[in-house]
Structure formats: C-alpha cells, structure tokens
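User: I'm curious whether this sequence folds into something compact or stays loose and floppy. Could you predict its structure so I can see for myself?
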Amino acid sequence: MSDASPSHPTDRALLMDGQMLSVDSLALEVRVSARRSRLGLTVERDGSLVLRVPLACSRERAEAFVRAGRHWLDDKLRLREERQPLHPTRQLVDGEIHRYLGREYRLLFVEEPGAPVRLVAGRLRMDRSAAADPKLARRALADWYTRAGLRWAQGRLQPWAARMDVSEPRVEVRDVGRRWGTHRPGRIALHWATFQLPFHLVDYVIAHELAHARVAGHGPDYWRLLRRAMPECARWKAELDEMGRRVWMGDLAEQ
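Assistant: Here's the prediction. I'll summarize afterward.
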C-alpha cells in the first residue's frame, strides 16, 4: 500500500530511519529512503509491519497514512493468519528425509572424518559425532545448506541482475529469521532453509530481492519490474506461499 501525497520538509517531528512508530495498537518499523516520494506499508513475512517513507516525512503525515490504510492492513493480517506456517520439526535421526533444491535425500549416520555433513551418492552423510547431539546436528546441517546454497546461488544472480539492469550484488547465505531473503544496498542475504525449495522457487527469491535494488517496497512499480524480468512471478509467488509453509526452518522436535 502506498500514497502519493507530497512531503512537507518544514514539519517539525520528522521520522528517522529505524525508529519504531506506534499508531493506535500497531507497532511499525520506519524505513527512510531518499529514493522514495510516497509512503508505503508492508506486512513482512515474520508478521512485522514496515512503514517506508521519503526524507523529511512528518510523524503526523505517517500516522494519518497508517490510519487511512487500516482496513487494507487488517485484511492483510487476517490473510496472514489463514496462511500461518506449518513448518515441521525434525528429530535428525538416521533415515530422516531432507530436501535440497526440491529433491529428497535421506540422512545417513556414518563414521567418517572430515566435514560433519556431506552429500554423497544421493545420501546426506552426517558424522555420528555431530549426530549424537541434536543441537550440533542441527548446526551442522544448517552449515551444509549454507555452503551448498552459497555455491549454487553465486551462479544464479547474474542472469536476473542483467534482466533488471542492476549491478550484481554480494550474496550471503545465513539465518535471516522467518524471511526467505533480505536486501541491503550492494548485497542480498538468503536464508539457508530456502535451498530446500525447488530451484525455480529459489530463483524467484533471488529475483525478488534483486528487484529491490531498483524499487523499494512492493508497490506497482516493483511488481511491474519483477514481472518484466520473470513473467511467471505471480505463479511462483503463489507456489512459494503454499510450499514455503512446510519448509523446515531449523526447529527441533522435543526429545
């Protein structure tokens, strides 16, 4: 959601980047951008609310914008409740199935020196010394997804960056909470859990973050750019919304 009202640099109480703004019962994180001319409101994947504003935006203007969009926001939050994640827990036991780029691989405990987790001959081989402790096993598996995902992702940025005419950023793979990815100037970060998805959905996440190098927020200009680079983006977004609810995000079952 966005507005097109002009900013008022003479207003006294101007918003600052990173501050928290409370409007009625809502808590919103403020993001200030010199590239913006309008206000925008988004519901992030983790349920947090982000208010994107131009420079010299007053608190009064921001509060009025949020209140005007309350019905839109309530609809978005209600839809989010209906699509609550169903992320499974894992026990990390011998024979358990895990996915990498959409394909299934069974976990196999082995007595082998070297890396705690390796993909060999269609099996995810985990050293028993790591497997003995669920927290160590979880860290070892997440580290493997991080390394394998980074190698794969580094070869996928250039085509999408070229289609959107943006510079190829530095890519990181790490835990980014309940988001698939994040964008900051010059770099994107992808969640290690993203690489359980089929590769075309990982491509969608990469392109989704790259588009933010040109357009902040998720307004019409953003989706126009992404659709031009990736005509299937609406279908893949819907597929990610459904399939992503069932991706393992690192949660362990109680022992």
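Summary: The chain has eight helices and eleven strands. Helices lie at 59-68, 70-82, 128-131, 134-154, 157-164, 199-211, 220-229, 233-243.
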